[in-house]
Design a protein that fits this description.
The structure holds 2 protein chains of 2 kinds. Chain A is of the alpha/beta class. Chain A contains 11 helices and 20 strands. By secondary structure, chain B is of the alpha/beta class. The chains are: A alpha/beta, B alpha/beta.
Chain lengths: 425, 310
């Protein structure tokens, strides 16, 4: 692979500089010779490649909705150089073999690093522990475990899982949803709109209650707990309290929860059916503030592709979830940078450094300095475009931003020294 | 009028027009030959994703008496389990050249979604726990007739109080009635145990009360809602007995009603649970009038949707 010289990129805190990539790593730009490929980054900002703690790549099982190849191409287009693939595939990622299969698919087809998340319980059944240790010891080196899609509701199982993964520095990522307060029928934030529309409500207490319990268990077990897709203000209060107390808890928020509100559901358009549901404006405000002050550590997309026919049912019967990989950075720029809530170095922390640390990915979320792995994106923060769901690398079309104008920042994505996406300019 | 999806789609003039036309349609029901040629050549499909003998036959008779070709399609069972999406089912039926689709669906919002996919008129015949606008219209028709017995030219419901009692949370009848009665100027009071009051009820144009006995003497109309079987086991209230004592229209409550006040129930009734036999069969019960009004009101609505020039 020949060298790649990125010329004149804005390195944010370090001013304008060239970046030389040699053998998958950054090298001193002064060492560039005349044979290097050139990439003009005049007017562009260079950031470390983004890391997504929460994606559903649907392979194996639902290759009609997404594959590792299409999902990571979407990731590359969105500026991601690593994605964690949730365990709710078919079969479930609950053994070392299943985890190694995902990692192998990533190595073969991936346009970004693909890291499997292991299931906490066998078949996501919420009853018996999956082979957490074997997944950790496998070639896939699983560190994050989650029954995402289902809450680990049994407090004893949660305690055992948290305790057990401490042996190999694992983390349990909880999908916090009390199934008694918010069962499978719950499809809309419980409030004025659910009452008006006659949709089964999903109260904030069903999330915050589980998180309140789990931070106590994390304190008891001195283990690492991560909260998936925080969606409501009450949960933010609990996490803030737990962090002040020194409990080892981290949290993520999905881009759609930073921008979209329950009002989207008024049309009964299942594109806006997502779990946890879109919440009212006041929750969105609190989530933005919590991401700004670090109570929420990371942005994670919960990219959830669905075949069109799985979304074209009545609202209550349609599949949960929306696409997110290609639009995440755009939404964070719009809601957090353009509003002045977040600086660029803070954005890098929330979308690259912290997620890499939570997932224990040593090659990701690193500074753009010589010797470091060459995971970098070039972005034009001023570019804007109207979103078009048909212009997507994903195999699915459940894009909630369709028809809306958003930033269109990503110009190039480089993963381990190789250009995985470059916008036509 | 393009579709009838929600009782909120109608203003007071439109409601009055539909009710007045329904009065004319009611006259047809007294004739030996009940057919009108108004919708000859038009095709109406009753697309029912949920069983409802009463509502379906009411729409069927209404369409037939207007000379429309009426076809019933039962699509019971979740579309997810059948493998066909709602959109495919609706497009398939619409592709047969249908003029109006009358849709009943167990999931809230399904008729809204359908109306965005097809050109035919869509009539909501009850969607999940959301709305049932023709039920609200036939209730208004029945209630207006009742008021007109004392004030023959009663136009709207200003100054009248209607109490809706029971499972407000899961009732499409309640939602449509609240909207329609409010448009007609009535003061609506909803009465239920707090477990059966929907979230956000404070933003509805109603008064909320959890004590039926406080409300009984003030209401001109007491509308009792059916208690669904699944609510009895769902922990919404401890026992049927406790429900009846707290929220049933019992004989003492029947006697406490304001003079001239009347009783409604959308049916089917659980006699002895939410309504006593005494109340159901009382002289001031409008329950059978409601059933009779169903056909005339649905004739009127079908005519409003389909009767105009192409």
């Amino acid at each position: 692979m020949s060298d790649l010289l990125i010329r004149g990129a804005d390195l944010v805190s370090r001013g304008r500089s060239d970046l030389l990539i040699r053998n998958r790593h950054f090298a001193e730009p002064s060492e560039a010779d005349g044979n290097a490929d050139l990439l003009d980054a005049d007017g562009l900002i260079a950031l470390p490649g983004l890391v997504d703690l929460h994606t559903h790549l649907r392979e194996p099982g639902r290759e009609d909705a997404e594959t590792v190849e299409s999902g990571t191409l979407a990731a590359a287009r969105g500026g991601f150089t690593a994605v964690l693939a949730m365990a709710n595939t078919d079969p479930v990622t609950d053994t070392a073999e299943a985890a190694e299969h995902i990692a192998a698919l990533g190595a073969r087809d991936g346009r970004a690093q693909v890291v499997p998340v292991g299931a906490v319980s066998k078949g996501l059944n919420g009853v018996e522990l999956a082979e957490l240790g074997l997944m950790a010891r496998s070639n896939a080196a699983v560190r994050m475990f989650s029954d995402d899609g289902h809450c680990v509701w049994d407090a004893r199982l949660m305690r055992r899982a948290l305790e057990y993964v401490r042996a190999f520095d694992g983390v349990i990522a909880q999908h916090a949803q009390d199934p008694q307060l918010a069962g499978t029928a719950a499809c809309c934030h419980e409030g004025e709109i659910s009452g008006k529309l006659g949709l089964t409500g999903w109260p904030a207490a069903a999330e915050a209650g589980i998180v309140a319990r789990d931070v106590q268990i994390a304190e008891l077990t001195r283990s690492r707990l991560h909260i998936c897709h925080v969606s409501c203000a009450e949960t933010v209060d609990v996490i803030r309290w737990a962090k002040q107390r020194g409990i080892n808890v981290t949290a993520e928020v999905a881009p759609h929860h930073l921008a979209l509100t329950t009002s989207e559901v008024l049309s009964y358009d299942p594109t806006y059916k997502v779990n946890p549901p879109l919440r009212p404006h006041e929750h969105v405000e609190v989530l933005r503030e919590a991401l700004a002050d670090g109570t929420i550590d990371a942005v994670a997309t919960d990219h959830a592709p669905h075949a069109r026919h799985d979304k074209e049912h009545a609202f209550a019967e349609a599949a949960f979830g929306m696409l997110g990989l290609e639009t995440a950075l755009a939404v964070v720029i719009e809601t957090m940078i353009n509003s002045g809530l977040l600086s660029w170095p803070e954005l890098v922390k929330r979308m690259s450094i912290m997620p890499a640390q939570i997932a224990r990915l040593s090659d990701q979320g690193r500074p753009l300095t010589p010797g470091e792995p060459a995971n970098v994106i070039l972005i034009d923060p001023a570019a804007r475009a109207v979103q078009n769901r048909d212009n997507s690398a994903s195999l699915s079309r459940n894009n909630p931003w369709h028809g809306r104008e958003l930033p269109d920042p990503v110009v190039a994505t480089i993963w381990a020294g190789r250009v995985t996406y470059q916008k036509e300019r | 009028m393009r579709h009838l999806l929600s009782a909120a789609d109608l203003d007071q003039n439109q409601i009055t027009e539909i009710l007045d036309l329904a009065e004319e349609m009611a006259l047809v029901q007294g004739r030996p030959v009940k057919k009108l040629p108004a919708l000859r050549g038009r095709t109406v499909v009753n697309l029912f994703f949920e069983d409802s003998t009463r509502t379906r036959s009411s729409f069927e008779i209404a369409g037939k008496w207007l000379s429309a070709d009426v076809i019933n399609i039962s699509a019971k069972g979740s579309s997810v389990s059948k493998g066909e999406s709602l959109r495919d089912t609706v497009l398939t039926v619409a592709a047969m050249g249908v003029d109006a689709l009358v849709i009943r669906h167990p999931a809230s919002g399904a008729p809204w979604q359908a109306s965005r996919w097809i050109d035919a008129h869509v009539l909501n015949a009850g969607d999940g726990t959301h709305e049932h606008p023709t039920q609200a219209l036939l209730d208004a028709f029945t209630i207006r007739r009742h008021f007109r017995r004392t004030v023959p030219d009663q136009l709207n419901f200003h100054g009248k109080t209607v109490a809706i009692v029971g499972d407000i949370t899961h009732s499409r009848v309640a939602r449509s009635n609240v909207l329609l009665l409010n448009t007609l100027g009535a003061q609506v009071i909803v009465v239920a145990p707090p477990t059966l009051l929907p979230s956000g009820i404070d933003s509805w144009p109603v008064l909320v009360c959890t004590d039926l006995d406080q409300v009984i003497p003030h209401a001109d109309i007491i509308m009792m809602l059916r208690v669904q079987r699944e609510r009895m086991s769902g922990g919404y209230f401890p026992t049927p007995r406790e429900y009846t004592i707290g929220y049933g229209l019992t004989r003492p409550r029947l006697q406490a009603m304001k003079p001239g006040a009347a009783i409604c129930h959308p049916g089917p009734m659980n006699r002895g649970l939410e309504i006593s036999a005494d109340a159901a069969d009382a002289a001031n019960s409008l329950i059978l009038d409601q059933v009779a009004a169903g056909v005339s009101v649905r004739m009127s609505v079908l005519y409003e949707l389909l009767g105009g020039a192409e």
